Amino acid sequence: MVYNTAMTIxxxxxxxxxxxxxxxTIKRALEDAGWTMRGLSKAHGRAPASVTSTILRxxxxxxxxxxxxxxxxxQEIWPSRWRDENGRLMSVQERKSNRWKRRSHxxxxxxA
Length: 112
Known about the structure:
With 112 residues, the protein is mostly helical. The chain contains six helices and no strands. The chain has one domain (19-105): lambda repressor-like DNA-binding domains (434 Repressor (Amino-terminal Domain)). It starts with 22 loop residues before the first helix and ends in a 10-residue tail after the last helix. The longest helix has 11 residues, at 60-70. The protein is globular.
């Protein structure tokens, strides 16, 4: 199965309401590319559960590794993680600079 923007309807990855690929779709795409989630993590010197963690929560480095293994851009797999406040897809450099801005809604709960 080829994962690109020219897919036929039968080969379109399943997506969540946010447009992100589902966990199963990512797993199958990795398997089609010859990887297991655990194997890809270990091949890049990461903890065995790193790919699984990335599917559940944002992790820029692993998103890039997963996308490269599948042969697509991370923006295609996780559009919700790669959009700015205006809905525009960000580049890797923009995402790196925006990662702290996105956390601005998280309040510091530590006692002073």
